[in-house]
Design goal:
This protein has 8 helices and 17 strands. With about 350 residues, the protein is α+β, with helices and mostly antiparallel strands. It folds into 2 domains: about 150 residues, D-amino Acid Aminotransferase, Chain A, domain 1, CATH 3.30.470.10; about 160 residues, D-amino Acid Aminotransferase, subunit A, domain 2 (D-amino Acid Aminotransferase, Chain A, domain 2, Alpha-Beta Barrel), CATH 3.20.10. The strands form 2 sheets. Strands 1, 2, 3, 4, 5, 6, 7, 8 and 17 form a 9-stranded antiparallel sheet that branches. Strands 9, 10, 11, 12, 13, 14, 15 and 16 form an 8-stranded mixed sheet that branches. A hairpin with a 5-residue loop joins strand 11 and strand 12. Helix 2 crosses helix 3. The longest helix has 14 residues. The N and C termini lie close together (about 10 Å). It binds pyridoxal-5'-phosphate and 2-OXO-4-methylpentanoic acid.
């Protein structure tokens, strides 16, 4: 198969239309068989549930070309499970896990020419999503839904790739206790747009959100969880019921413990203790492991010892091991890698 003529090494994190996408419709209580289609347009009622009350959720995962030339993706079963949680919380029907994984395989296979080559630094981002499609005007769930998967080749989420970023402590809250912070609902991102535009205008790459109830604890950013490294080399990550349970973070904790022999702690992290950490990073499918060099809290700066040019040593080891597993250079734990072709 011939790859598309794309400048893989210089891709940013943007949308490039690929040739195929997957579509399945839910009507009268059941999902149809689903198809791979070239049609990238969605035609909806003007009163569709998604347009009126934002009834939509999504997922994000990636396909990689491994060192030995296979196309694989990383833990798609966990994305299927998380989308099930999102759907249930939003009163949407569940797209069954086995079908979710099969649809990912079908759409990546169809778009194999867009899967960036090994070593290019780029990957194929896979975006499953679902939305209420029939007319809804009283506040209630839709009866009909569409599940789709689009794919797009991407480079690094943050400009500069693996260079440390500067983030700010946000004055906005991302998620309320007992709200929807733990699921991947479109509404969580809609309400973060003003905060991220504001942060970008002020020269910051991302926001650090604090817990909405007390504003004393670290939650996450708009699109990634935090990992910290203590001065005695323990990996610490915030525990909260209002953050997204990142698959990357769960994988990194396992990697830290089982591959690198590090102690790991998932616990409440108070903002006051952040200044004492040795390293800070963001983790997520899009972010991979992105080092944070500086956190600014209303003019007060927290600067991490590795500086603004390179990752801290433990963050680098976590990054190297995780990406090594994803790209087939390091043996993966059982079940982590789904071979597509
Ligand atoms: N937190 C938020 C708010 C996200 O949008 C994402 C991205 O999916 C993550 C964390 C990281 O999750 P994952 O590692 O499963 O991609
Ligand atoms: C992902 O990492 O897959 C996400 O959905 C985060 C988003 C900010 C791009």
């Amino acid at each position: 198969m011939e790859k598309k003529n794309i400048d893989w090494a210089n891709l940013g994190f943007g949308y490039i239309k690929t040739d195929y996408r997957y579509v399945s419709n839910f009507k009268e209580g059941a999902w149809d068989a689903g198809v791979i289609t070239e049609d990238d347009k969605v035609v909806l009622s003007e009163c569709a549930g998604v347009l009126q009350y934002a009834q939509t959720c999504f997922e994000g995962l990636k396909a990689y070309t491994t060192e030995d030339g296979k196309i694989v993706c990383f833990r798609p079963d966990l994305n299927a499970e998380r989308m099930e949680d999102s759907a249930k919380r939003l009163e949407m029907p569940v797209f069954p896990k086995e079908r979710f994984i099969d649809a990912v395989v079908q759409v990546v296979k169809a778009n194999a020419a867009f899967v960036p080559p090994y070593g290019s630094g780029a990957t194929l981002y896979i975006r499953p999503y679902m939305f209420g499609s029939n007319p809804v005007i009283g506040v209630k769930p839709a009866d009909e839904y569409q599940f789709r998967i689009l794919t797009t080749p991407v480079g690094p989420y943050f400009k500069g790739g693996a260079k440390p970023i500067t983030i700010k402590v946000s004055d906005f809250d991302r998620a309320a206790p007992h709200g929807t912070g733990h699921i991947k609902a479109g509404l969580n991102y809609a309400m973060s747009l003003h905060a991220i535009v504001t942060a970008h205008e002020e020269g910051f790459a991302e926001n650090m959100y604090l817990d909405a109830a007390t504003r004393t604890k670290v939650e996450e950013t708009g699109g990634a969880n935090f990992i910290f490294v203590t001065k005695d080399n323990k990996v610490v990550t915030p525990k909260s019921s209002s953050i997204l349970p990142s698959i990357t973070r769960r994988s990194l904790l396992y990697v830290a413990k089982e591959y690198l022999g590090l102690e790991v702690e998932e616990r409440e992290v108070f903002f006051d203790e952040v200044k004492d950490f040795a390293e800070c990073g963001l983790c997520g499918t899009a972010a991979v492991v992105s080092p944070v060099g500086k956190i600014v809290d209303h003019g007060k700066e927290i600067c991490f010892p590795a500086g603004m040019e390179k990752m801290g040593p433990t963050t680098q080891k976590l990054y190297d091991t995780l990406t090594g597993i994803q790209m087939g250079r390091i043996e993966a734990p059982e079940g982590w890698i789904k071979v597509i072709e």
